[in-house]
Amino acid sequence: xxxxxxxxxxxxxxxxxxxxxxxxxxxxxxxxxxxxxxxxxxxxxxxxxxxxxxxxxxxxxxxxxxxxxxxxxxxxxxxxxxxxxxxxxxxxxxxxxxxxxxxxxxxxxxxxxxxxxxxxxxxxxxxxxxxxxxxxxxxxxxxxxxxxxxxxxxxxxxxxxxxxxxxxxxxxxxxxxxxxxxxxxxxxxxxxxxxxxxxxxxxxxxxxxxxxxxxxxxxxxxxxxxxxxxxxxxxxxxxxxxxxxxxxxxxxxxxxxxxxxxxxxxxxxxxxxxxxxxxxxxxxxxxxxxxxxxxxxxxxxxxxxxxxxxxxxxxxxxxxxxxxxxxxxxxxxxxxxxxxxxxxxxxxxxxxxxxxxxxxxxxxxxxxxxxxxxxxxxxxxxxxxxxxxxxxxxxxxxxxxxxxxxxxxx
Length: 410
Fold this sequence. Notes:
This protein is α/β, with parallel strands linked by helices and 410 residues long. Helix content is 34%, strand content 28%. Helix 1 packs parallel to helix 7 (298-317), helix 7 runs antiparallel to helix 8 (326-340) and helix 9 crosses helix 13.
């Protein structure tokens, strides 16, 4: 076992696993440090609805063996209305998916060190040259990648990504059996991924039901500690209380039971990132402040950021003089904005406006959406300002003004 590598990656999630997979396949010496033990990886505490679309499956050659259920449609719900769109997708078994990434990269030579809790960077002449983990152990590399998610010990120490954590997203998910996926008065959720906008269930966020086969589904709640949450939150309610409230009041759960051991919870952060790289270093995946678009799909964003980091590292390490300087690794920032989260400012602004709207406005939005073409919805979700304006009503001006006021004050 060596202590010197081309690339060190902290975190073996979708972003870290994909970066390791790409780099190992190109012949680089890669070491991945993962907090969890090999026997427990990935633990049930890992958060993810693990829903994705065919573009992601094909782009990253994700095998059918890690899919719980292939879906046909996406459904958006408000308290009293719903919108259905034909959008083929796949709900992944997240544990199998993450283990597949490990196995793929190990087959190409990547080394994984489990039970390795990263604590801080090893610095030399003001630049990161390695990682300290498990107290006093150290490993060194030409490039270090932080893929640890919200903990982000390396990115924080290097003051990368603007990690102020002002808007924390908190989520919990259970898997249920005995679901009624087609009760009267609701959309049929058979072979469907559903997202619900309803402050009674998720103030300042959204809830979901992803059908995983037969009468089973992934069910969760996520809210952001934003203005929408502060205005709509129930006194004393925790994230668990909101999910239980939904289960207690929705007929789809009347005979449903939680599947033992199938619990996922976690957090992320929602804010604009600044730089995501510096000398010898890149931050990827959920370490980078997350943008939560209308259709979700965080797995795709994580894997694309991992691939962009691998492309950048490959270029830097094959440079005539092996240039891993901040200016060279800034190519990752450019790729992130172009390929991972294009028009990130517009999309984040739209997201903040969405979560400030009332339940009545969510009902109106779902009625309005039926008038728009799929291309118009895609344009709005993609951050097209004109398409976003076309979806607004006169009463949205107050939401626009309050969002803009907070936006510019920050």
